[in-house]
Design goal:
The chain is built from 28 helices and two strands. The protein is about 65% helix and about 0% strand.
Amino acid sequence: MAENLFLEDYITLGVYFCIVLAVGLWSTFRPNKGNAKGYFLAGKTMHWIPIGASIYASNIGAPMFIGLAGSAAGSGIAVTIYEWHAVFFLILLGWVFLPVYVSCGAYTIPEWVKKRFGGRRLRMYVSFLALLGYILCNISGEIYTGAIFLQQMLEWNIYLCVSIILGVTAIYTTVGGLASVIYTDTLQTVILIIGATVLFFMCEYTCNITLAIIEVGGYAAMETKFMNAMSNETRYNRSYYSCGVPPADSFHIFRDAVTGDIPWPGALLGLSTLGLYGWGQDQIIVQRTLSARNMVHAKAGTLLGAVLKLTGFLLFVIPGMISRILYTEEVACSDPDKCMAFCNNKSGCTNIAYPLMVLRLLPKGFRGLMLAALLAALMSTLTSILNSASSIMTLDIWHQFRKKASQSELMIVGRVTVLVLIALSILWLPILQQTQGGRFWFYVQSVRSYLIPPLCMMFLLGLFWKRTTEQGVFWGLMLSIVVGFVRMVLDFSFLAPACGSNEVDARPEIISKVDFLHFATILALFATIAMVVISLCTQPRTEKQLHRLTWWTKDDKAEPELTDDEDEEVHMSFLKKGKEFETMQIQENSQTTENDEAGEQRLKTKCRNWVCGIDEDAKQAMTTQELKEIRRKMTSLEEDSKMKIILNASAIVIIILTIVLLVYFG
């Protein structure tokens, strides 16, 4: 079968990139971009549809096409739990976590951390850990998996492909801010769903015709064919190439607690700690909901994101499994030498399951569309990561050292942060090429299991237990991170024997017997005990300091009584310090006025202001009442009574539907 792109495909790709770039740049001319609220929260004017689409697109990156589909090709539908469990946590975000974040007027999650617990070290710790996680897991994972399908489809130089993608991504992320990210996410979500849906139906059509299973039905026939989809080496020597045999529980989500690759206790408990943080506390997702024009749109956006997450089973898992059926010798290869010849990876070739189907099943033009969807997923997630990292660096780190920084300075720092992350990502490529891609999905999840559970417990305790103290949380995190780091070092120091190597498993039992999801549960319990014990031994914050910062105080009318050091936000802090300002004017240094500038100099100044996000109109004065009204709208939890009933009923229906699906396929 043909495995090259044709003229029609390149035309589709070109049109796609032009449209995406145009949408991203168009959003830069919208109002409210020349200040921090506009750049980082899209002016808090976003509609629920773009919010939901952006939540979905922010998470559906190249790892889903490569990692999720590849894991499904290797071991069946169990990996679906990573998609469906997100439904519950997205609803928790809209109904439980978000009201607290909005009520206190936070721009970023580390900002809420500092307000809730006080002090500077905890906010800085969370900020640096988030940036480190973006580099080690998020950005590196996107680049690595993106390089895999680009290599399969285009046969271009990896550095050239990734550099071009990152370059285009950086342009509209740097210039446009969160509004640019959300609008392009909406466009890319449409392309993503259309492309993946077309491929799904092509898979169904091909399987029914090629495998002659019309009489027995698609899914039932797929079960039989998948369980027999083994390479010739595996078929003739199952004991030696046992890793090439599909698991007996391939069509069950919940698997054996000891021998399962995704054990059911870990899926219910350990994965929940990762999900709670990833969907309810991570800056990338939360920032989209914070940009909503009100709580109704925020909740509706989370519901739309939850519904879209249910589609992962059809769009990624099933196609990955069908790819193994259609291209067994390549996708299910078990001999290291043959795997190296097929995909340049001795550990296995399940990662190429999705790209193979795109190249071999789709007709001319549609291949370009699907490649556009893949690139959309990659770029969408990268834009989300870069914008969120920019927000954290600017508002949570830079502003701690430059308390009187102007709006222009903060905007420039945000843009420079994006460019620096882009450069670091490109420099990281040689290291990524040394990573064994056969276990990529579980690699990412295991790293998250060693770092995230303590952070999850910090948020839960901070939201629901007023007695939690800064000292308890900080030292609980310190102790937990040591435990997690030790496990991570051991995990990557003692590797499991390669398939077909006939080597003895010499790993310590803490590695071979304790799955990383089980370890996540243990680490969360350890962190909780440490935080609770230390908090009980230290002085808690007063009730007045907790106004609007916990679930129990989110509806308080009074603002929290914070010290100047604790209340350093750049947006509305002056309203809480009791100062009667007649007007506020954002000061921007300028050596000469516009009237004195020559035409050429004036043009240069306007170009500089546009690139740096400096809005001259932002200098206009605002009265104290206007500022207070803005603050009230930003922190309002008001909801229309009819819409509230509709949203609550919709949330219940979606939860029930998800539970039914889990029970049926469990």
